[in-house]
Amino acid sequence: MADLRFALWDSFPESEVDGGSSISEVYDRHIGLARLVEELGYHSYFVIEHQNRELISSPSVYLTAVARETEVLRIGAMIWQLPFHHPLRLAEEVGMLDQLSHGRVEFGTGIGIHEHEFMRWGLDFYARGAMSQEALEIIKIAWTQDEVTYDGKFWQFNEALPAPKPFQKPTPPIWVGAHSKAALEFAAKGNYHVSQNIDVDDVVAEKFDYYRKVWRECNHDGPMPGVFLQRIVHVAETDALAREEAEKHLVGRATLPVAGEMATGGSFGRSRVSGSKIGWGSSPRGMGTESDLPDNVERGRVFKMMGQSYDFSIENGVAIIGSPETVARKIQEQQKYIGYDLLATTHGFGDMPLDLVEKSVKLFGKEVIPAFK
Q1: What pLDDT score does 18 carry?
Q2: Separation of alpha carbons 236 and 324, rounded Å
Q3: Beta bridge mates, 345
Q4: Whole-angstrom distance, CA of residue 319 vs CA of residue 315
Q5: Angle at CA 352, nearest 5°, toward 347 and 358?
Q6: Per-residue pLDDT tens digits for 129-169
Q7: Which bin fits 277, alpha (ψ -120 to 50), beta or left (φ > 0)?
């Protein structure tokens, strides 16, 4: 089988807090999960940032704790939401994290998709793309130059002296979380690594092909950047047992951070948003006027179908569930079709209990990962 790296995309299911655990206990359990996947040979460990309701509102802080409890596991957020950060502060935080981890940071960047997050912070949701491009430009300058003098639309600096620089030179790997054509073009033209986490396999394959086409047209020096895909995964001793354990947690539940009508399941955070004055923003689907863009409508359809049909998730590759042999075969087929270098697996979804999550992670690490070495 082809060489492939594996990451854990740690989802922090809201059921853990709904079930009575304190937030500190949840953090401790997930740091333990990071130690476990390091022992099992995973390449990396990722979380995602959201504001106003999620447990990971400050990825740099949490990942520092993970860094000090691990030795070789690469760590990152996929994504840090750039518009919510002062770019020099984020450059310094990630630089410190990279030093503290001795060069293990993967820097995932993105613009955010939930309108209510921006409304609550007084940020312009529709300026987030331009803000993110400017922020990333500043962060790269801060990491690679002695001083930052910058006169932009959103930020201006006069001989700022950010420190420390990252451990990795010239910068940690930079990823772009890309769904739209514009984001894919930005990633390709900037020679950035690219990631995806929602669309069905046919759509992901089409988008990654487009990214590679634009990248080749740019005539960049060096090898093609990495391609990252996230998928829901559950492994059990047999195919039948895997479905029995996973189906009730997958169908009818929110499996990824989404908004409005696409979200069902746990109450922590979601009830705070739904019951608030601002709610999910100007659209019940949570993405303002962009809710009706074809790409966003399609992802809404995917989430709706995932909540209704187990077979839909399996047939379209958004969930990979089965025995170790079945899961390895499906990953091999998917990788050949789509083309990716790093598969991030989410084992905690819906209200799946931690013991089943850990069992799945262990079977994946001991019996699936070795098939790709």
Answers
A1: 67
A2: 7
A3: 8, 231
A4: 8
A5: 50
A6: 999 999 999 999 999 999 999 999 999 999 999 999 999 99
A7: alpha
